[in-house]
Amino acid sequence: MESIFHEKQEGSLCAQHCLNNLLQGEYFSPVELSSIAHQLDEEERMRMAEGGVTSEDYRTFLQQPSGNMDDSGFFSIQVISNALKVWGLELILFNSPEYQRLRIDPINERSFICNYKEHWFTVRKLGKQWFNLNSLLTGPELISDTYLALFLAQLQQEGYSIFVVKGDLPDCEADQLLQMIRVQQMHRPKLIGEELAQLKEQRVQKTDLERVLEANDGSTVLDEDEEDLQRALALSRQEIDMEDEEADLRRAIQLSMQGSSRSISQDIPQTSGTHLTSEELRKRREAYFEKEQPKQQGDGRQQQQDPPGQLSQPSERPTTSSGAPGSDPGDAMSEEDMLQAAVTMSLETVRNNFKTDGKK
Fold this sequence. Notes:
alpha+beta; six-stranded antiparallel sheet; ubiquitinyl hydrolase 1; ubl conjugation pathway; thiol protease; UIM_dom; 6 strands; Ataxin-3
């Protein structure tokens, strides 16, 4: 692609760009094309003068601007055609009845010149590949052989005038190089206006970013604030997760305790308060030991009746703080012994509930 000559659009000099891209070099300048246009204007004036310099047509012709060029840099098809005659080249209208009768496949041609609303551009074959050398593009656009006919048909449908360039084009480096290799194009070139718009938008975005950075005293301040915000959000999520786990654990414990409380409450009478008084606890403890003593005496008699040689399990009797078995529980028990007895009584009640449920 680098070897292909491609003039980009400047002002309204599309005719100059079209010719130079076709010939692959800086062959024509605005001054040279203006000279050709003035020469054509003089030839037309002389033909109009043949009808008389005093005629109305001649005076009208002199008052009209040139039809071959204007101050913007536009040049007519007559200027382009006369410029190509210098190189022995001729233009033939592509969609004319004369050319259509020849039934020539476009792929067998060498180049085309296209015009629409005073814009000129070249489509040329270099080596074995076709390229759109439109000066409005940022670079040459590769056109496949299968797409060439469709491309020209689309231009005709959009109102373009297409001319076939007949004759031998001057030799160029790109044509010689592309005879040996084929190029590939990953991305199509953009229009110059589109590229300029993107560059302008990038400059505007860059300016806005600089203003923001200045307002926030540099980019480091923005980075630090953003990092602090991310850390705060992460910590907040962790705390929420921990609170959810703790709430689930508390609910599980509460449900478990409620289940145990319902089992125990079936056998233990409820008091009027939420806590047992010391008097109530003492009475329950005495009732428990009074129930245990006959059982232990019965176990002792059973042990005496066991035949010799068999071991029986010794019965466990509650002890007081002094360690003397069989003493009155309510006389000299410490608070720790009282608590232990209460726990033992509660566990015994739970065991009885389990046995009752198993029998059911």
